Amino acid sequence: MPKQQEDILITIVIASVFLVLIGFFLLLIVFIFLRRQRKFQQERDEMKNRFDQTILKTQLEIQEQTFSHISQEIHDNIGQVLSLVRLNLSTFMEEVSEEKFEHTDQLLGKAIKDLRDLSHNLQSNRINDIGILESIRQLMATLQKTGRYTTSLEIADSFAGVNKDTDLILFRMIQEIINNIIKHASASAIDIKIESDPSNIKIVVTDNGTGFDTEKLKKTGHGIGLQNIFNRAKMIHATVDIQSNLGHGTAITLQIKPNRPSL
Which CATH number is correct for 135-263, 1.50.10.10, 1.10.3720.10, 3.30.300.30, 3.30.565.10? Predict the structure, then answer.
């Protein structure tokens, strides 16, 4: 092979190797850039999630403090005033009929008891003390005693709650669901079923009320009550599923992994 052609061939080979190396380094740089970009995106998402969690936790702590304050006010002020009014009724025996007095006394007694029950339901410490199971039982018993609702409660033997913080949030979610039923559903029956195994806890709250269009809800957005439920679910990594049809009631399902960290 002539010397000139050999030099050209060597030059082409060297240039080709050089181009391949440049291409390899460019690909390596692109790969490193994309990897760092992906890592940065993950870190940013994690930071946003932590920030959102902190905001939600702060909101819930403020809400619990508000509940505790309202509970204390009901117990210390309104309840005591009603008790004094009830006590003072005894001085009116000669001026009013005994039947009217007894009826008024019964109404005041009911008001005092309802306020006491409300105070207990709002008080976080009491919920933590008696546990989520007893809190749900008392909530359903209170609904039953109103005479407006028939209730049923079915709890798996294996369910004993998750932990103090998660149980409190779960109970608040159940309270919010029931509040929505009372306000909007025009229901006469409320049922709660709790299923539990080591990997999953499932709570289903159903009513026989008017129901609503879930597709319309997706378009218009959640009301404050439902938004509170979803915010709390996010705090404990729970899922919320709403099944409802106009005229056929509503079923809201909460699911949570008990072995997953909550807060």
Answer: 3.30.565.10
